Amino acid sequence: MKRVTGIGGIFFKSKDPQHTREWYQRHLGIEQEPWGGAVLKWRHHDQPERVGTTIWSPFKADTTHFQPSDNTFMVNYRVGNLEELLAALKTEGIEQVGEMQAHEYGKFAWILDPDGNKIELWEPADEA
Q: Across the strands, what pairs with 7?
């Protein structure tokens, strides 16, 4: 079973997300979407005709989205089959944080690493 297939997103807290977005756009060319983040596109190594995406997004400093972690960032990992991976992780003693969520753009679930970093697992809808 394939587990992580790539980085799905980088999320971090910011004192002023709008200023941070503008700074990254102006100085590093990261074009912002109307919803407040960026979609970075790339091609799949084994299927170069397929386009993949990695999301980049600053969050408000007081967001609760990263809880129960106290850290200022969260990494989203792309996975091939989220339900299968969650079952395997459970047998390995890894506890899921909250319930899996399904949206039109994919399924999401969360776990904690040994340092207490919240990890988001994402099965993109186009890879189901």
A: 77
